[in-house]
Design goal:
The complex is a heterodimer of chains A (241) and B (654).
Chain A: E1 2-9, H1 18-31, E2 48-50, E3 59-68, H2 80-91, E4 98-105, H3 113-116, E5 117-126, H4 131-143, E6 148-153, E7 156-161, E8 166-175, E9 178-186, H5 194-200, E10 207-219, E11 222-224, H6 237-240
Parallel strand pairs in A: 3-10
Antiparallel strand pairs in A: 1-3, 1-4, 2-3, 5-9, 5-10, 6-7, 8-9, 10-11
Chain B: H1 5-11, E1 38-44, H2 48-51, H3 55-66, E2 70-76, H4 80-89, E3 107-111, H5 118-128, E4 143-147, E5 163-165, H6 172-185, H7 191-199, E6 204-205, E7 210-215, E8 218-224, E9 233-234, E10 262-265, E11 267-268, H8 278-282, E12 287-288, H9 291-305, E13 309-313, H10 323-333, E14 340-342, H11 350-359, E15 366-372, H12 376-381, H13 388-400, E16 405-412, H14 419-437, E17 444-451, H15 468-484, E18 492-496, H16 499-509, H17 516-524, H18 538-547, H19 552-557, E19 571-572, H20 577-588
Parallel strand pairs in B: 1-2, 1-3, 3-4, 4-5, 9-19, 10-13, 13-14, 15-16, 16-17, 17-18
Antiparallel strand pairs in B: 5-6, 7-8, 11-12
Helix pairs in contact in B: 5-17, 9-10, 11-13, 13-14, 14-15, 15-16, 17-18
Chain lengths: 241, 654
């Protein structure tokens, strides 16, 4: 059985790197006594697969991982009650700031999340600028026909046009000591990071905080989330009791 | 109460590994600071990755926070990039728990496990904005206290520390908390008053209240400059480890650290009597934790932390009474079947390897043994009574049971060492390869060579350390041997520690308070993180010594005489100085000394002086080791089979 899990990474733990997040998940799932499947071989590892990496220091409300279980849950019916029980059980084992938002069985046949996700929505707070200046910068960037960026790949520097990965960008008003931008950035074949986009602006901007709000995959012409937070609404406490 | 987090989170993006500075570990405590509570900042003066797993610090962190009159938080030396950011932004050193400035604590307590971190201690004080010199501190400045093994000779730090604590910290932190809380309640007026009170606590040494007199180079007197404080400061010893089942809430970091696993201390102290080993001398007697408590700590710890590895720690874990039963139950308790148990200190014999085979079901990569010296003669000098059959039995057993690599630890620069002893290391390694060829096509044996540094409170405290040149020459002998006879020594690899770092360790290991100026000089010239090879710079130390007119020859390479006053003679680890001197004479006469756990007491002083004794569950020596256990020499039969088939149960007395 495979579980797909959506989690948030906010606050101090946003400074924990991707590899360390994987390790704290391994420990958390062991504490939650989930029967995680292990790889074969000399040095067996728990079979977890994470979606797109998140830059260290960025927050997120939409991180994903998939967990392969050795056996399905005893009470075979998976419903919203079961989902909430499992969600809460896992959530309790994780550090403050790593919050499990939703859990659901997933289909083994699907593409890996890394392949399936085509874009992300980001909330970006920039410092030292007002709404008007930010709007000018955004319009200028959107007006360009190409946006050239130097990127490193296998030790070599390439110049790439990343304009097609800038799907949407808007100024979303004031935030605490800054301006809030909302951006939709493409992830295929290689994700465009908010920091790269800000650096390409004229003048370049720096983010005070960045938060991934959503990851999106395509289903026909619609974009859907791999696991929506609304998909498995938490049952009311009194109903459970 | 103030938290620097809002300022820190703006700059953490600029530094490497920001997770070092966020805290948030599982097991972290957010204490409630109150004016009447003594506030401790426990500082490990090395990186977070090295310091976080430190058991001593974790134990004290919990014990202090359980007290109603004290709180404790933690800090680690910020890496150079972070130190730069703090200086640029004007932010002080802070705790990782609540990001509180260091100056808002009453006690800055440093854990010193290596001499090379001394400059980091100064760096942390400076970043805390605490005056470096005790004489410059005002009543409102925190007290600077050190503990850990280096605290047994704190003299080089005398200018900078208010107090050093000798021995086990579990009990003494309570007395310190009481005194400091009372001092706070009284308005923290005089600094002299609190220092005198600290000096009256058993195990606490206040260097500024003791005067050192020199005649030329020689130390001629080091004694109290005031009345009412002890002539000799005795170490603290926890009589029964069963009373202290800590840490109960092992800290689980969010970022990878060294020894990233559950660590359960199974006993403290060691009476094997290896003469080079300071830890074995200063932590006597042996105090075993009851097997039932070990089992509970393992089971609870694994469940609480989610770790998949547990290490049973001590100075020689295979010597724990009935160790095979303890590890067998640890493995049996394991619910998910993926937990591996490791024994970081393997004894050199096949029995021990049998236990390791039992428990290291996964990840069977390499095993490490420490014969320490190349010949039986030299092993008698250092009292590491491992004979060749023990070693070949151990290595053969390891290779037969699936391990492909063995690592052998040796020291070079030992007393009476000849080139024959040094070169014999290659032959031992090569014989180990031969053992391995019976099971694998290309077994490998790595020799790891460390430079010997004489330490206080050991029989070798009188020995003049080998010079850097001499250590390099000996390392060179082995490199040359391997190069010229590559065929003979096929499969043998050599690694060695930097001989120049041993010089600085040796300088401070047995140094006196005149060296404070040298530490400060090196720190002022940027010498931090000296235990990191990328930062270590011998020239900084040599130049600082030269500027003070001090000589490395005199401090490091000189043999001491019996009548010489040593800079730690006014401190005591319980060991009689005449016992140590006799053991030094025995060493030179190549006479071994058996382990007193299983043979009659030879009155070293560690038990009798404090009215305590060994706490061991089994009064008979462990199976399979001839090594100084009082078992007949030559009886090297090993009660485990050397095949991969079912092993014969070891007959250990109960």
């Amino acid at each position: 059985m495979r579980l797909r899990i959506r989690f948030a990474k906010t606050g101090k733990v946003r400074f924990v790197g991707h590899r360390d997040v994987a390790r704290l998940w391994e420990r958390g799932l062991r504490k939650a006594s989930l029967s995680v499947a292990y790889s074969e071989g000399f040095s067996p590892r728990p079979r977890l697969s994470f979606g797109l990496a998140l830059s260290t220091g960025y927050e997120s409300n939409a991180e994903y991982l998939e967990v392969e279980l050795r056996e399905p849950f005893d009470d075979a019916t998976w419903d919203c009650w079961k989902a909430e029980e499992v969600r809460a059980r896992i959530d309790a084992t994780l550090p403050v700031g790593i919050d499990v938002l939703a859990v659901a069985p997933s289909d083994r046949g699907e593409d890996s999340l890394q392949k399936a996700v085509t874009s992300c929505t980001w909330e970006i707070i920039v410092d030292g600028i007002d709404v008007e200046e930010a709007s000018t910068g955004v319009l200028e960037l959107l007006g360009r026909s190409q946006i050239l960026l130097e990127r490193e790949r296998k030790g070599k520097i390439f110049t790439e046009d990343i304009r097609h990965q800038l799907l949407a960008l808007e100024v979303n008003g004031d935030a605490d000591d800054g301006v809030r931008l909302i951006a939709d950035l493409g992830t295929q074949p290689r994700a465009l990071r908010p920091g790269e986009m800000l650096a390409a602006m004229d003048p370049p901007l720096t983010a005070r905080s960045v938060c991934r709000m959503n990851q999106w995959m395509l289903q026909g012409n619609d974009r859907i989330e791999p696991l929506s937070v609304d998909a498995a609404p938490a049952p009311l406490a009194e109903v459970r009791a | 109460m103030s938290s620097l987090w809002p300022e820190l989170e703006r700059v953490l993006g600029e530094v490497q590994k920001p997770a070092r500075y966020i805290g948030c570990e599982d097991g972290m405590i957010v204490p409630e600071h109150r004016p009447e509570k003594a506030a401790w900042l426990l500082i490990y003066p090395d990186t977070y990755e090295v310091g976080l797993p430190n058991q001593g610090l974790q134990i004290l962190y919990e014990i202090i926070n359980e007290r109603p009159d004290a709180v404790a938080e933690r800090s680690y030396a910020p890496w150079t990039d972070m130190a730069g950011v703090l200086r640029r932004t004007g932010l002080p050193l802070f705790s990782v728990d609540t990001h509180r400035p260091a100056t808002e604590f009453d006690i800055l307590a440093f854990n010193l496990s290596s001499e090379l971190v001394y400059t980091n201690l100064l760096e942390c004080l400076d970043l805390s904005r605490v005056p470096l010199h005790t004489t410059a501190r005002r009543p409102e400045d925190p007290l600077v206290v050190v503990g850990g093994h280096c605290a047994y000779n704190p003299e080089p730090l005398a200018d900078f520390i208010d107090a050093a604590v000798l021995g086990d910290g579990e009990e003494v932190v309570s007395e310190l908390s009481e005194v400091v809380a009372a001092w706070k309640a009284a308005g923290r007026t005089s600094r002299d008053g609190i220092l005198r009170e600290l000096a009256r606590i058993e195990g606490v040494y206040v260097p500024s209240l003791y005067e050192a007199e020199f005649d030329g180079d020689r130390l001629v007197s080091l004694s109290p400059s005031t009345t009412g404080i002890p002539e000799v400061v005795e170490k603290r010893t926890v009589a029964d480890l069963a009373q202290w089942p800590y840490p109960k809430n092992h800290l689980v970091p969010l970022t990878e650290v060294v020894h990233d696993r559950l660590n359960v201390e199974v006993f403290r102290g060691c009476t094997r009597g290896c003469r080079f080993c300071q830890a074995g001398m200063i932590t006597r007697p042996v105090r075993e934790r009851p097997a039932g408590q070990v089992r509970t700590m393992i089971a609870d710890g694994l469940q609480r932390t989610g770790y998949d590895e547990v290490a049973l720690t001590s100075l020689s874990t295979a010597d724990f009474s009935n160790i095979e039963q303890v590890v067998a139950t640890a493995v049996a308790d394991d619910v998910c079947g993926q937990v591996s148990v490791s024994l970081p200190s393997l004894r050199v014999d096949a029995f021990t390897v049998g236990i390791a085979a039992e428990i290291q079901r996964a990840r069977r990569t390499g095993l490490t043994f420490a014969p320490e010296a190349g010949t039986w003669r030299l092993r008698q000098v250092i009292n590491k009574l491992v004979n060749e059959e023990d070693l070949y039995g151990a290595v053969g057993s390891a290779f037969s049971q699936g391990w492909r690599r063995a690592k052998l630890y040796f020291l070079t620069g030992l007393p009476t060492e000849t080139d024959e002893d040094t070169l014999a290391i290659l032959d031992l390694a090569s014989r180990c390869i031969d053992e391995g060829r019976e099971y694998h096509r290309s077994p490998s044996v790595t020799i790891s060579l460390g430079g010997f540094v004489p330490k206080p409170f050991t029989p070798f405290q009188w020995f003049g350390q080998n010079t850097e040149t001499e250590l390099r020459r000996k390392i060179g002998l082995l490199r040359e041997g391997l190069r010229l006879q590559g065929k003979t020594y096929k499969g043998v690899k050599l690694k060695w520690h930097d001989a120049s770092a041993s010089v600085v360790e040796g300088l401070f290991s047995r140094g006196d308070r005149r060296l404070g100026a040298v530490i400060e000089d090196v720190w002022r010239n940027g010498g931090v993180f000296q235990e990191w090879s990328e930062h270590f710079d011998l020239k900084l130390w040599e130049d600082a010594m030269a500027r003070r007119g001090l000589s490395l020859d005199w401090y490091v390479y000189r043999h001491r005489t019996e009548d010489e006053l040593l800079p730690w003679d006014h401190l005591s680890a319980g060991l009689h100085k005449d016992f140590l001197w006799q053991d030094w004479r025995d060493a030179l006469a190549e006479v071994g000394l058996e382990d007193c756990r299983w043979t009659p007491c030879y009155d070293c002083g560690a038990c009798t002086g404090y009215g305590i004794e060994h706490i061991v569950a089994s009064a008979v020596p462990p199976a399979g080791g001839s090594q100084g256990t009082g078992q007949a020499e030559g009886d090297t039969t090993v009660p485990v089979s050397l095949t991969t088939g079912p092993r014969v149960a070891a007959g250990v007395g109960s």
